[in-house]
Structures are given as structure tokens and as C-alpha cells.
Amino acid sequence: MSYSARVIENHLKIDYEGLSKNISSDFIVEHGWIYELDSYRNITNIQWNTGANFYIDRSLLFFKKLLPYIKAGSYIYFNGEDGNNYGFFFEDGTVTAEALYLVREKDYELLQKIQRQRTDH
Questions:
Q1: What's the distance, Cα to Cα, between the start and end of the chain in Å?
Q2: Which domain holds residue 32?
Q3: How many whole angstroms separate alpha carbon 33 and alpha carbon 27?
Q4: Sorting pLDDT into bands at 50, 70 and 90, what band is 1?
Q5: How many other C-beta atoms are found inside a 10 Å radius of the C-beta of residue 97?
Q6: In whole angstroms, how large is the CA radius of gyration of the chain?
Q7: Which of 88, 24, 20 has its CA nearest to residue 54?
Q8: What is the pTM of this model?
Q9: How many domains does the chain have?
Q10: pLDDT digits (tens, 9 = 90+) for 73-119
């Protein structure tokens, strides 16, 4: 899928020094992203250049290349022009892309209750 998308939540921490030594500090910008460094020289804010087309599969390949430099537990959420939301999640040395759905709090609590009942049996 190719379309316009924007970052709606960003909780990434990328080792800028490691990335610069082993790939290139320009790698991110060359692939349509902009970023900011924190005071410890980690990339903590990354944004998609919304003027370019967004491809989930290409973004997944991009994040796989950065995977050794991304802190586990990081994630980033996007909202597409069609209203769909997507997230990239970084855990245990892997990155996954998933469609995201909004759930009301009471529905979430009900889902949690059902899951607890299933594990209790």
C-alpha cells in the first residue's frame, strides 16, 4: 500500500553513534525521514516526510536495517490518509508491522476479563 501517512505517536530510541559508524548517519534522511537527537546523542524523535508516499513493506525493510540500533520496547504509530492506523513494534531483536484499532476503555476491560478467565481454566 502506498499513500500519505503521518506519525501520531513515536517512542523510538535509536543509537545514533552506532548507526553512524556502521551504516551512515544519512541513511535515515535518504529514506524519507527526519529526526532529532537528544542530549545523549540518541535519536528519540523520527518523523516521516509526509510529502512522500508511504509504503508499509518498504518501511518494514527500513526498520529491519536499523534494528541493531533500536532499543527493545520501542514503537512508532502512523495514521494513513484512509484513516487506518499502523504500528511498528521492536521486541526481542525483531520488528513487526501491525494494523491498529481503537478500543473503548470498557471494551478493553471486558477483553482483559475474558483473557483472565481463559487462563484460569
A1: 41
A2: 2-120
A3: 9
A4: very low
A5: 14
A6: 17
A7: 88
A8: 0.79
A9: 1
A10: 999 998 888 888 999 999 999 999 999 988 888 888 888 898 899 88
Q: What is the 3-state secondary structure (H, E, C) of the chain?
A: CEECEEEEEEECCEEHHHHHHHCCCCHHHHCCEEEEECCCCEEEEEEECCCCCEEHHHHHHHHHHHHHHECCCCEEEEEECCCCEEEEEEECCEEEEEEECCCCHHHHHHHHHHHHHHHHC
Nearest CA to 50 out of 98, 99, 3 is that of: 3
**For position 30, which CATH number holds?**
3.30.70
d(C-alpha 49, C-alpha 67), whole Å: 20
Which grid coordinates belong to 89?
513494534
What pairs with residue 75 in β-bridges? 11, 89
| Cβ(63)–Cβ(70) below 8 Å | yes
Contact (Cβ atoms closer than 8 angstroms) between residue 111 and residue 103: yes
- Give me the count of residues in the chain: 121
